[in-house]
Design goal:
mainly alpha, 2 domains, two-stranded parallel sheet, two-stranded antiparallel ribbon, 4 strands
Length: 341
């Protein structure tokens, strides 16, 4: 079905940021999200699972405890909002077809856990640990560990038993993942995959006992304007240590003082984010989520100070990588990496 373009889509950015999220009239129908959900349903049906998670637009990705459904970020439902998210947040999680399916499979793991109350089973707890364990404000990943699968990246399965299960389920569900061969030399992770394989075999053709269609914190109920949403996001991303970061950024970049056309520092950081995230995470052995959070904080500070490149991008790139690595290392010393999904 052809997408209908809302009247606000062509508004100037200043007027668009003044619009309330609740008043945008967003719907999943006719979007890339709907197409991805249909694919997810086919994958679940192909495994003989009768779960069909209901989905709704929210401010971020989540699957609520006790509800077999999936909340999808509102910005994924419109291309203008995706562009806005990338501009102000640095990245739109799930903004391409591959990442969208990866996240949906992960959230489907949470949904099936809720639908069948799997975490109550002794076997589930033996495999993954108690789901009652408190979510930590940070976690220190162990990149060399072979006890956990890798799906979303950033060793996210290490953050909590519920995330360990969701990541393992996602690997098991992904068509053509070849998990038996891929994890053949990872006995603990492979044992969890075999457990999920057997458990899903038990649930084949079974009706879920929990069928709640409850919608939690929907975007249509949010009183925030888009501008307020992004200001709140910026405060969360900025965190402690801003003066030190500001000083380092001023040494690398320069404030725009004249009319000369120079590349904005925030733009360069946004474009370099995917490479920086992988490179620094690999070099320091930390979560990609921590690197992303540090870079997003720098993007916001560069935008606030109106910084531009001092010289060529080629000259700035290695210095920027060293700055990001130094700030990530500082964050690790302060409080350890945070998990965000």
């Amino acid at each position: 079905m052809k997408r209908r373009k809302p009247a606000w889509e062509d508004l100037p950015e200043e007027r668009l940021l003044a619009r309330r999220i609740a008043g945008l009239g967003l719907t999943i129908r006719g979007t890339q999200v709907e197409r991805a959900l249909r694919r997810l349903q086919r994958e679940l049906a192909g495994r003989g699972l009768r779960l069909r998670p209901h989905c709704w637009a929210a401010l971020e990705w989540f699957s609520p405890d006790g509800v077999p459904g999936i909340a999808v970020p509102f910005y994924l439902l419109n291309p203008r909002l995706q562009a806005l998210q990338r501009r102000y947040a640095g990245e739109a999680e799930g903004g391409n077809a591959r990442d969208l399916m990866r996240i949906l499979r992960h959230e489907a793991g949470h949904a099936i856990d809720n639908a069948f109350r799997l975490r109550r089973r002794a076997g589930w707890r033996a495999a993954f640990g108690p789901a009652s364990r408190r979510y930590a404000g940070s976690y220190r990943p162990r990149p060399g560990s072979r006890r956990y699968v890798q799906h979303l990246g950033g060793w996210y399965s290490q953050s909590h038993p519920a995330e360990d299960f969701a990541e393992t389920f996602a690997v098991w569900l992904t068509p053509g993942s070849g998990w038996r061969r891929r994890y053949a030399d990872w006995p603990p992770a492979l044992a969890k995959l075999h457990y999920v394989d057997g458990l899903m075999g038990e649930l084949r053709d079974c009706a879920p006992p929990v069928r709640s269609r409850q919608v939690i914190e929907p975007a249509r109920a949010s009183r925030l304007t888009l501008g307020q949403y992004y200001r709140r996001l910026a405060r969360r991303q900025r965190g402690p240590g801003a003066p030190r970061v500001d000083a380092a950024l001023r040494r690398l970049f320069v404030a725009r003082m004249d009319g000369r056309r120079r590349t904005r520092a925030a733009r360069m950081l946004r474009e370099e984010l995917p490479v920086l995230r992988r490179r620094v995470a690999r070099e320091l052995g930390v979560s990609e989520y921590l690197v992303r959070e540090v870079v997003l904080r720098m993007i916001e500070r560069c935008r606030s100070m109106d910084l531009v490149l001092r010289a060529s991008r080629r000259d700035a790139r290695p210095r920027l990588a060293r700055l990001v690595a130094a700030e990530v290392a500082h964050s690790m010393r302060q409080c350890g990496p945070r998990h965000t999904l």
